[in-house]
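Weekly puzzle thread! Below is a chain. First person to post its structure in token form gets bragging rights.
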Amino acid sequence: MKTDLQKVKGVIRIMKYTISAFSLTFLLMLSAVTGAVLISLDPFESSTENFTIETSDSYGVNEYTLVEIDEGDNDEEAVIVERPHEFEFLANNGGDVVTWDFGDGNTGTGFEINHSYDEPGVYTVVATSSSTDQIQSKRLIITVDRMATVESDNMECVCAPTAKSTIIDLIPLVGTTSFEGIVTVEHDGSSESCTMRNPLQECHVRVILERTRDGSVVDQSVIYDGTFRTNEHNVPFELDNVQFDVGEGMQLRLETDQVRDWHKPSTSWSMTAPA
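Winning reply:
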């Protein structure tokens, strides 16, 4: 004899299969009417997929440009333009809300979001998907380098009343970084061009690499000191794995000893993300 409890369990089991059969019949009829394709008929199969994130690029380069403008009063005005690389981030299979921590103190919310970094560096991006039943987090590593160009005012000759050195700040950041660049000096004055000069009057430039601390020069290294008879001369430079602490900097100083020299220098370089 079946107990009352066994009878109740049997009724529930019959109802369960009856409902399942009815549901199956209804879904098949709906598929026939609408033309829909039934992918799965397992009512216990989970539709939750793994949360993932991706980016358009894991590496980007910020562009920095400085142009010195002199209106004839030898009081140059620096015009700076910065173009940070814009990263695109995408969250897949997220929950109700996806929040982003970009690793530079900035955050955001959304399944698709863009972000730019003000400074070169290596950043860890963390995205968190939140829903009523679970919280998931994923991370990406982003690297940002810098490419810089400086167009200086005329590097005036030593005889001029306003004669001065031309200083190019390499804008290093705290950490270990490398530089690779080139200084170009181009004849840009009313004096005799470099190509027309005799060996005793050749154009001249001195390029000095200077280490600074709190704005004061603490070390100098001459990377070029020579003469030339072309209207454009290039001086490449390269620095590998240089360590900078807080308050420390690096700059180039351009000088000339020739009375008749008048050149307009431009400097371009790339800098790796500080480690």
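Puzzle host: Confirmed. Bonus trivia for everyone else. The chain has three domains: 1-44, 52-144, 152-271.
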